[in-house]
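Re: that backbone. Tokens:
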């Protein structure tokens, strides 16, 4: 359980950093992604995108 929590946390960090490039593909604008502004800075928590990419990686891993 701890391994999955850490994996999802790391995926959220990576997706947040790569969000400007991934938004061109539609990642980061899904209904489960959270965006908010705090103290003049915008924060993005791409939960739905993380789950989608994790499922995609799981399917690719099962096929290989």
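Recovered sequence:
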């Amino acid at each position: 359980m701890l391994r999955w929590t850490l994996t999802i946390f790391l995926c959220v960090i990576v997706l947040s950093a790569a969000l400007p490039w991934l938004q061109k593909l539609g990642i980061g604008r899904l209904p489960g992604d959270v965006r908010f502004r705090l103290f003049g800075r915008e924060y993005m928590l791409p939960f739905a995108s993380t789950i989608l990419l994790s499922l995609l990686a799981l399917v690719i891993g099962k096929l290989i």
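Strands lie at 34-38, 41-45. The radius of gyration is 13 Å.
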